[in-house]
Each structure stands twice: as C-alpha cells, then as structure tokens.
Design a protein that fits this description.
Helix content is 17%, strand content 28%. By secondary structure, it is α/β, with parallel strands linked by helices.
C-alpha cells in the first residue's frame, strides 16, 4: 500500500497545503465515507456543506473554499487532482509477461519490449506491436495492423486489416476498429455492396469505449485525432474525421464523411447526419439532432439543433402550445364573426 504525506501529495499535484503537512494518506474516499487516513475532494460547490461532516484526513478543494478545520490541499481543479491521485494510489503497471501460451501469432510480426499478449489473443501477419503494449484474451488483430507503444487492447476488441493505432490508446472490450462502412449502390430493387478499401487511423492517446465501432473509409482514412475519447456504444461511420480532444458520449451516431473540429463535446444520443462540419469548441446537448453544419464556439441543443439559448426559449413555449392553440382558435372564430358582420354593413 502506498502512503504519502500531505506535503508530498501537494507537491505531486502542484497544490498548496493548509493544515498539517505531515498527515499520512494511503488512498481516496468520498466525502461521506472517508476515514482519517484517506483524502477526499470537493469539486462542486453545492456539496460544500458536506466538508464539515467528513472524517477524511484531508480535502482537495479550490482556493477560497471553507475547510471547516480540515487539512486541505488547495488547487485550481480539484477534480483533476482527484483523478491524478487515483492514478498514483491505485493504478499499477502491467507485468512483463511476454507472449503467453495459447496466444496465436502470425508470421512477420514485429514486437517491442515489455509486451503482454494473453492466451486467446489472435495476432495476424505483418503486424507491428510497440513497446509495453497489452493485448487481452479474445482480442483479434488482423493482418498489417500497427499498434503504438503503451496501447492497451482489452478482451474481444477487434482491429481489422491495415488500421493504425497510435501510442497510449485504449480499446475497451468489444470495440471494433475498421469494420466495413455502410456503403451500398442501388441495383434495381436490391443493393450492391461497395467494397470499403480504406482504413482507420487512431492518433495517440485516443480511447474507444466498450462496443463502440469506428468504420473504415471507403477509399482513404477514417481519422480520430489525438486525445479524443469515445464512450461506450458510439458509432463513427466511414470517412469521418474527428479532431483533437473531443468527448463523444454514449450512443452518439456520426454518419459518413462528417468533419468534427477540435475540443467538441457531443452529449449522449446525439445524431449527426453525413457530410456536415462541426466547428471547434462546440457542445451539442443530449439527444440533439444535427441536420446541417454548425459554426464553432457555440452550445447547441434540440432537434434540429439550434443555439442553446434559443432552444431554451422554444422549450419554454412548448408546454403552452395547447392553450395558445385554443386561444388562437377562439380569436379566429371572433375574427370570422367580425368579418361577417362588417360584410353585411
């Protein structure tokens, strides 16, 4: 078990200690359940009153918060500090087990140092695997794939032929990289499948959630740029390009040949039609539909998606529509009577 003084933790996080710097901490806990050897955190001011009741040995909080007599590490982003301490206390490096028995390895496979390939993993021909890569049981890597160093591919994930996976990527269980794009040419009453001969490229530090799918391009590249994270059950269609540091939340569907800018957030169940562009720093609220391109640096909601403030006004009107319809009907009747009376005069 790792134990650190509060001062050591503050130096690790780049924060400032208020209280006893020699208090020893061996892990993290929530505000309600923390014990004196644990550190907790306050990331949302609406829970500030719970700090008074916690029994934690210390609290991570933003500058200016009320410590209620507790030891504190102040730092601008307590939630980020919480994440870093979880990594420090609970994340352990993978053991260097090499290629284990019952893993299936093709020909002309190039492997780096300190790798872990578990039983039941299948590695195709002409695959390149970087240093410290981990491939769990049931994962299938097709021919001519390249995998960058420190990437982790979890159980039953699939990377199809010729796709390229960058450094420090994570593929969660059941994810599929490089499945065929949904392309068919009408042929009378039926459809002729269009061969999807492109690839998928994941740049460094991309993470793909469980059962998420990224389709290969019809001709060139489906690209997900550095640092982007896909949640579980996300679908990215062929020829799409997604920028850097995007957050694509569960059940989002992005149709073919769409272009997503940098630092875009698509909340749960957003649907994006094909061949549109979404600018940098856009946020699209949950269950929104995006039928056309969206300029950058804006928050959108609704279906069809519109600027969020406009959507709030629209939603404010919606519950009143039945009464408004009734009043309009009454006014229409009065207007018709007035017009009939005037016509007689």
């Amino acid at each position: 078990m790792i134990t650190k003084t509060l001062q050591e933790l503050a130096e690790y996080l780049g924060g400032t200690v208020h209280g006893d710097p020699n208090v020893r901490i061996n892990g993290l806990a929530p505000l309600e359940g923390a014990t004196p050897e644990k550190i907790t955190f306050l990331a949302n001011a609406k829970y500030a009153a719970k700090v008074e009741e916690t029994k934690a040995g210390a609290v991570l909080m933003a500058p200016g918060g009320e410590p209620y007599g507790h030891n504190v590490i102040e730092l601008p982003n307590p939630y980020l500090g919480f994440a870093k301490l979880l990594t420090l206390f609970y994340t352990r490096p993978h053991p260097n087990l090499g290629v284990m028995p019952e893993a299936i390895i093709g020909i002309n496979v190039t492997m780096g140092e300190d790798i872990n390939i578990y039983p039941g993993a299948v590695i195709g021909n002409n695959v390149s695997i970087g240093n410290k890569v981990v491939i769990y049981p049931g994962a299938v890597i097709y021919d001519d794939v390249s995998i960058g160093e420190e990437t982790v591919i979890h159980a039953n994930a699939v990377v199809r032929e010729r796709c390229q996976i960058g450094k420090r990527c994570k593929l969660q269980p059941g994810s599929v990289i490089g499945s065929d794009g949904f392309g068919y040419a009408p042929d009378g009453q039926s459809y002729y499948p269009i061969p999807q001969i492109g690839i998928v490229v994941l740049e460094d530090d991309v993470e793909i959630g469980a059962n998420a799918t990224v389709d290969r391009a019809a001709l060139e590249v489906t690209l997900i740029k550095r640092g982007t994270k896909l949640d579980n059950l996300v679908q990215v269609a062929h020829n799409c390009q997604i920028g850097e540091d995007c957050m694509i939340v569960s059940q989002v569907g992005i149709a073919g040949s769409s272009r997503i800018g940098n630092h875009v957030t698509l909340a749960g169940q957003v649907g994006v039609v094909g061949h549109v562009s979404i600018g940098d720093n856009v946020i699209v609220g949950a269950q929104s539909g995006v039928p056309g391109s969206l300029p950058g640096n804006e928050y959108y909601s609704g279906s069809p998606a519109m600027p969020h403030k406009q959507w709030l006004r629209v939603m404010g009107v919606m519950p009143r529509l039945p009464d408004m319809r009734k009043k309009i009907s009454e006014l229409e009747k009065k207007l018709n009577l007035l017009e009939a009376r005037l016509a007689k005069e």
